[in-house]
Amino acid sequence: MYKVWLLRVRRKLRFWLTVLYEWWLDRQLVADGRPSHVGIILDGNRRYARRLGIADTNEIYDLGAEKLTEVLKWCDDLSIRFVTIWVLSTDNLRNRPPGEVSSLLAVFEKKLKGIVTSQVIQERKIRIKAVGRLELLPASTLDAIREAEAATSKFDAFRLNIAVAYGGREEISDAVKSMLKEAVGRGMSLNDLLAHITPDEIARHLYSVDLPEPDLIIRTSGELRLSGFLLWQSAYSEFYFADVFWPEFRRIDFLRAIRSYQLRGRRFGG
After folding, report:
1. Active site residue 92
2. Catalytic residue (one of 45, 62, 92, 161)
3. Catalytic residue list contains 43
4. DSSP 158
5. Segment (H or E) for 145
6. Phi, then psi, of 239 in degrees rounded to 5
């Protein structure tokens, strides 16, 4: 009986210490120094599932999808108006077992269909846009994407950019191809074309040309690499690597990332 009572006391103490620490982190943040665009690599779903002994891949990705809703609320509460998440890479699409990819896309489709009518999306006016080599996706996934984009197209308070079938190198090569195709269509000579190839011109053809470059990129799961996420746009981004798997990413972890960002002296070009 004493051990049960002690366990309950410890749990309550841990809960209130967490609440207190979260409040303290909130107080540390400066209102005018928050990032406007945050990129998030949602990593660690499978490893988290293995740790818990979860074998059902649908259940694995359901946990990750639920976490996204929480994170969107946190971002909106801090007036972060642009969020780009990486759901599926082109490498994943090519190299992971077909059954696993199908499960991930099924959860993605379900989440998109549900999120359009969700209270979070409607109340916070979140516009959804997908970027990547979308032509590689199955028809059902494309339909879910187009429906979500159409249903939220008039919202302008918050932008959720979803990178799916996405690779940073592919984005850059697609941008160059688009730029060259446009130049050829305008009848440019070779010399004019060479002069036309500039960083600004390439950037004009990126998937997310209408978004500001990300101020902060967060990756969960403890991996210390970008793996090709927003390669072009992240030249001057700050990075934060959280040592927790995506489904267990807490508001405390998110606030730590924002605090870390605010404590850095950002430099552009040096």
Report:
1. yes
2. 92
3. yes
4. E
5. helix 139-151
6. -120, 145
